[in-house]
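Reopening: structure tokens for the zinc ion complex, inputs below.
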Amino acid sequence: MEKNDLDLLIASPGSDMAYLAGYFGHASERPAFLLIPKRGEPAIVIAAFESRSLPDYDGTVKILTYTETQDGFDLVRQARSSFSGQMRRVAVSDQIWGRFLLRLQSLMEDAEFAHASGYLRELRMRKDDSELGLLRSAAERTDRALETVLQSPIQGQSEIQVAQRLARAMQENGLSDTFTIVCSGPNGASPHHISGDRVIADGDVVVMDFGGVFQGYHSDLTRTYCVGHATPEAREVYEIVKRAQQTGVDAVRPGAKGQDVDRATRSVIADAGYGDAFIHRTGHGIGLDVHEDPFMVEGETQKLDPGMTVTIEPGIYLEGRFGVRIEDTVAVTPTGSERLNHVPRDQRIVP
Ligand code: ZN
Ligand code: ZN
Ligand code: ZN
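Re-run output (same inputs, fresh job):
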């Protein structure tokens, strides 16, 4: 904050507050803020009953609580006047609701507001060993969930039924806040399709993209399988995506930029003649948020450093027919990269 000339940093429940204060509460209409001044004691303003779920800060954080009939912003004003010096430059977390930001701005009319992510991203992108351990564990739990689900047939079930099986298997492996995207046949051509009641049939290509949270840290895994049998076209497209994904993982190393990784991955698909069918970026950083800096996309000039964790998830989407995507979470190591997911990527026909 000294170096960046910031007088105050404000976060709300969300990934920045989790990172800075170890509090994993959810954002709601009840204001909750972490206020970190450049000098002096940080403060948390929170509803009294919710303060019971705060970690024990051993007196290093001033906890200001309000009841259901009081206005939390009176406490923000109080905290602010207890901080020494002027509040000229205030950085706010991306995940502060608009209704709260507008009130903070009217409370601090003379301050200039900035994105906290401009400063926090430097810290959050580089995971320390304990964070890497949690990401590795989240990925392994997700791998196991998929293996469990593949033990019984998916043919004849609806996308929603398979999504529910995946969610249950992830929960049984200790993951919370799970998401599941199951797209079958033509639905696979929509990368973020919402699982519906289409019944999975023989010959379908099925994309499963899913993940969850382990002690705050996310997993994100995609596998694509042919059901019953595979057409020659599906086989060919699958091999191209698999090769692109391997090329992307190989491009992840210290010093490579996000756009270098995207270009390397994309060129495999373009050279095979499917460039127009790869309709999204190659990947994203992953940590306390499922999508976070840095992004594997054209224009991303952030260089990769050891400890960064990103996804590599190329896909080919053929409208009206099918889609294929393969995604792993990968950590940057001092010499290259380490896949955190280990479910096989070879072509597989499932019942
Ligand atoms: Zn996605
Ligand atoms: Zn995904
Ligand atoms: Zn992803």
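The first helix runs from residue 15 to 21. The first strand starts at residue 8 and ends at 11. Marking as resolved unless the reporter disagrees.
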